[in-house]
Amino acid sequence: xxxxxTVLGALGVTGLAAAGLALNGKxxxxxxxxxxxxxxxxxxxPKRAVVKVDRVFSRQRGREVGLLTLVPPGVDxxxxxxxxxxxxxxxxxxxxxxxxxPEALVSAVSRGSVPPFGFVAVDGGDHYWHENVPGxxxxxxxxxxxxxxxxxxxxxxxxxxxxxxMGGFGTLLYARRRHERREPLKAVATMAPALMTSWDEMSKxxxxxxxxxxxxxxxxxxxxxxxxVPLGVWVGDKDWFIExxxxxxxxIKPAVAVIVPGxxxxxxxxxxxxxxxxxxxxxxxx
Length: 286
Known about the structure:
The two termini are 31 Å apart. The protein has an 8-stranded mixed beta sheet with strand order 1-2-4-3-5-6-7-8, with helices on both faces. The chain has helices at residues 4-11, 13-18, 29-37, 101-111, 138-152, 166-180, 199-203, 211-217, 242-252, 267-282, and strands at 50-58, 63-71, 82-86, 118-122, 158-164, 187-191, 231-236, 256-260. By secondary structure, the chain is α/β, with parallel strands linked by helices.
């Protein structure tokens, strides 16, 4: 069980309060964390995902960040393949597992429909997973530091990237850099990626110095730079970013492309697609 201080550090007092969790010390911290991640409730304890949270110093970001690992119960984690799990804007490591992802992973692994694998999430800030502020490079953290942090904890290498919204944008940027380094991923799963079609829209996020920088990094304007990695894209047809996502799907023709009827940019939509996301990743673990 992680300490209450660790939970608060990873998720933030505001986030816990918003999730309706007790902050008076009466609820065990491990239970509070499981509630925030969607793994508490009627699921028997042995069938809950194993979630661990640390605070680590990131040289690439120049600060301490939350590091969260999420794995199926009862599996040998030595050398366990891991997918990075990138949160959306205004998020953190503790809010990266959207749409009941922990339960979906546990269910798929326990049924034997996918081999065991896990997720690792980190605090990435709000600047679309690149170095917008000098000395704060979340993409460098993913590339240079996460492998070491995982190795120190006995986990295996990063085989995939998974993300939602801004994190979906980040997964595509990360896949591009891995391809450029000749260290390609085996799978990329992006949910409701924040792919915008105009600089006027993107400039409101204060995440890029100018339109030229955005154009140089935007996955929608660099569809030929990800390499042959299998891509899965899931989005609701009422999502904020549906126009850009449709254009991306048409241009890149991903291995899987699902547009959910009536789906918005919300957790209820993510819950409809997360089991498919887990299957997509699991088929590419080996």
